[in-house]
Amino acid sequence: MKLYEMAVAPNPRRVRMFLAEKGLLDKVERVEMDLQKGDNLKPDFVAKNPMKKVPVLETDDGVCISETMAICRYIEESHPETQSLLGDTALEKALIEQWLRWIDFYLFIPTGMSFQHGSGYFNDRMNCIKEWAEDCHGKVIEFFDFLETHFADNEFVCCKRFTAADINAYTTVQFGKTIGIRVGDDRPNLKAWHDRIHARESAKV
After folding, report:
1. Per the record's keyword annotation, is Transferase included, yes or no (predicted)?
2. What is the mean pLDDT of residues 130-155?
3. Which pLDDT does position 161 carry in this prediction?
4. Is the separation of the CB atoms in 167 and 85 below 8 Å?
């Protein structure tokens, strides 16, 4: 398999952590893309993903799968011998999916929008709206506060164990550094959770 990615981007990091937790990272050939230089706009890559985004997983059969969680779902179902990260029971699967959506809608998207509209990185390719960046920045802080309360009574995001929800939350919290939001001592519960995940081997990939 091949994983087309940009190593510094948060979504490819989600997939790498997912693979690492399953002990499969060395089974994938990683292909680094430079989005700033437009590698994702070249015809051969657009043929793999017409949305022109990373990551993309190309299977040994030449089938290309786009979107982070679609890739993770394929890996999960293709390797049932590895630890499950998307749930074993109907209830676990539902709770993990619930949290994945919460993390995407209320943390990842606002973080990404604050970065895109406020960092200046995308000024040459989109209409950046400063006020939208500032509003999204506030939404990220609100969700950090929500997580601080949640982790007062929970060691992991859900299901009382490490799951894909922890991966997505951790990589997004890390992404928050790009907009100047960091986990500090003012949120001790969130910091304790962050430090537990940060200590895992998969967090180093």
Report:
1. yes
2. 98
3. 98
4. yes
Q: Are 75 and 22 in contact (CB under 8 A)?
A: yes
DSSP 164-190: HHHHHHHHHHHHGGGGT----TTSHHH
Q: What is the pLDDT of residues 170-195, one digit of tens each?
A: 999 999 999 999 999 999 999 999 99
Predicted structure pTM score: 0.95
Measure Cα distances from 152 to 101, 155, 160 in Å: 21, 8, 13
90-204 CATH: 1.20.1050.10
Q: Give me the residues paired with residue 2 across strands.
A: 29, 58
Tokens 């997983």: give the residue: 57
Residues 6+ apart with CB under 8 A from 35: 6, 9, 54
Question: Which CATH number is associated with domain 2-78?
Answer: 3.40.30.10
Backbone phi, then psi, for 127, in 5-degree steps? -85, 100
Residue 124 has pLDDT above 80, yes or no: no
Q: Which residues pair with 32 in a beta bridge?
A: 5
Half-sphere CA count of 181, side-chain side, radius 13 A: 26
